[in-house]
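Email to the structure team, subject: Methyltransferase model.

Hi all, the expression group asked for a predicted structure before they design truncation constructs. Nothing fancy, just the tokens so they can compare against earlier work. One-line instruction: predict Methyltransferase, return tokens.
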Amino acid sequence: MTKAFHSSGDVIADRRSGYARMLAEGGDHAAAADLMAQALELTPEWAAGWELLGNYSEKAGDISGAISAWRHLEALDDEGLFGASLKLAAHGAARAGEGTAVSYVEALFDQYAPRFESALLQNLGYQVPALLDGMLGAEMGRLGIDHFARAIDLGCGTGLMGERVRSRVSYLEGVDLSAAMIAETGKKGIYDRLDKAELVVALTGRAAEADLVTAADVFIYCGALPPVLAAVVPAMMPGGLLAFSLEAHDGEEPVFLRPSLRYAHGVAATRQALTDAGLEILQFEMATLRQDRGAPIAGMLILARRSANVNSLLTLDDEMTMGFGASGGVAA
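Reply from the structure team: attached below.
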């Protein structure tokens, strides 16, 4: 899934957009926004142009102008590829949804896939897979675990987390929303199985088969944590481990949407969500996850275990599923 950035279908509008891009690259975002506004007078139905106008306006400090552009974008972008609703919510002009903006995230990472690793590792100082794997290795020693039978790497991307845990796992499955990411990681031969799917859809209805689930910088695109855990935990065996990261904030809100269009979670609310989901917290650390625009991004690194006393955690749905012998599978 891609976004049509390159042409409006009008030569003059495209030329003005090109000049606007050069001005923006030179730091003159106000002038870039002015040129984009002129281009859109010629091509008012060009969704990608409205996104550019909104972004340039935002960087120029004209938030009202950005919001106006994103409202035009929202009206044109029926599939939500450009994330206009998220942009509006991040600036208080709309209410943020609780779930993943599937079309936006899919389009974002389809475009990001070819340069994903170089950007994260070389430019942003990304360390989450290494940090989570270090926590996991230490806990395996403490618990006397020498190997995992079956692991699911949610939001596997290009396999950075999978590379870390591969030697610890007999059967490793990767799930990602982006076909381009799946294609990139498929070249590495890390996973025994790869599925293109949204994670809640992929896990819903599964048997409790995974003794390890990882999610490195994945839930930051999912919004509220409880619905995610409600899908993840039933797919874990009793005693299975969950290793994941979240961006953190210091406020009382359980979650809020940042201008980066990633969600930040509250520490206390995260702890409560884990407990409510029937997970025992084994390790809970605060750390710098990466750099973003020159600033460190604070986050949480969490290792939790599903209660071994599965009977105490059965929901009505679990009981019905077990009683009728239903089985589920991954949505590809």
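The beta strands are 148-154, 169-176, 193-196, 210-215, 236-249, 255-257, 263-266, 279-292, 295-306. The chain has two domains: 11-95, 117-324. Ping us if the truncation boundaries need rechecking.
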